[in-house]
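Action item from last week, closing it out:
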Amino acid sequence: MLLSLHVKNLALIDEAEIEFTKGLNILSGETGAGKSILLGSINLALGAKADRDCIRSGAEQAVIEMVFQLENDAQRRCMEELELTAEDGDLVIVQRRISEKRSVCKVCGETVTAKQLSMLSGVLLHIHGQRDNQLLLQEKEQRAYLDGYAGENMQALLKQLKDVYRAYCACRDEELAVREKEHAGEREIALAQFEVTEIEQAALREGEDEELERRYHKMLNGKRIMEHVQRAYGMTGDGEMQSADMLVGAAVMELRSAASLDEEALDLQEQLVNIDALLNDFNRDLSAYISDMEFDEREFHETESRLDLINHLKNKYHADSIAQIQDYLMKQQAYLEQMSDFDAYKKRVGEKMVQAEKELSALCAEVSALRSKTAVQLAGNLSAALQDLNFLKAGVRIDVTPDGTHYTADGYDSVTFMLSLNPGEPYKPLSSVASGGELSRIMLALKTLKADKDGIDAMIFDEIDAGISGKTAWLVSEKLGMLAKNSQVICITHLPQIAAMADTHFVIEKETKEGRTATTIYPVEDEALLDELARMLGGDQITEAARSNAAEMKRMAQEVKCREG
């Protein structure tokens, strides 16, 4: 359930706070007052793409904050999977800050990615806009509604189906590769044999190239290195009078004489003796390093030749390392093994493909059977729901057509919603017979039927009333009221018939203060509520007749809610 929405510095909104309630929440206002901005703020909070133009002029950043109350286990499981912790038990705070340079989304104080926010919003809130009506005309969307209505059993089957289809595709790709290899001539096989022999004879060792590079670099710079270390050796220990070892040795003798005259000099003598020992050890190591640096021309050429071979193989086989060359070797070895007994290899791949297709076909058939069974149930329930929405003689049929030659990750069925608006008329695809207003009602009927199955306790309808009026509008209002008994419904509308059914009513207005235009949102009740309904009935001039009509409409809505309750 959506508890509140706070918007600051977004487009025409300076600052607005809305506290939603259970049941049916209605938002109304003149065209251009800012209803689309409000809906846009919700989309932005839930991760929609934002740009700096949405920030109110003069402000540094826009802030949208939504507070949800977790209502079911599916929502709590999603929070656990995302490793997010609700506040005060079951409160979830979603915040979006948009500035010129960056945009940050947080859930309960934790920064989240767009993917995480999409997963969470999918179980917290469903937003239905007019675009969704057009999506319903697509076969893919119709199949999704049917699968959603089928419930958890279908979702488990579809999840399994995706894994099986992935395995089937891998087998299919392998079979295609076999067909290509089947036409490989002696030249391709001979080339593979040559490459395997060339790499095997090289006897490459992983890491060998790096080791050789270090040794080669050292030998290549040997002369300069030798000049530096020999000078260092001359300064520290070659036996010359001014070398460090001779000077330190002389200093030791002087301190020994001093210590014989003053015991306090003993510590200094011992420190210098240790330094003398360390210097002698250093000189031995430096002498050994110089001996090892003796240039061996044969070793240099062998190292250079080995590096040339390795680099040649890297270039030839497009490799960056010896490990990649060895991977290519194993690939070619496997290819030659396959080609040495190609018929047996081809048979194994064929048998594997047959088994994969058999498993996929069986699972597709199971999914198709469940779809067909669910299609009968959904068509009957949808027909009844449409009759409540003034489709008095409409009939619904949902065709599930299997095609065993065309597998997808969703099965092999095509699903088509068929509609007959009048008795005796043939059933035709939804896209051929439904107008904009009819699509709105069909979508509302579907939402009503699926409300309990979706596990979503909050729904937003953006102008579900498009293309309807009169009696139909009243029937849509009743359907929304019924839907709001078990779910929180937030509806943006222009029709007084729908607004009259509200449990909570908000008015959106645009006003100018101190030379600036701003959108304001506030709840109305009692006399103010009747004035808004009267405005929706008769325009800006609110007459007593319009107010009387509004009061009657509100009374009728209350009777409907009491009757349905």
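Closing note: The CA atoms of residues 132 and 468 lie 17 Å apart.
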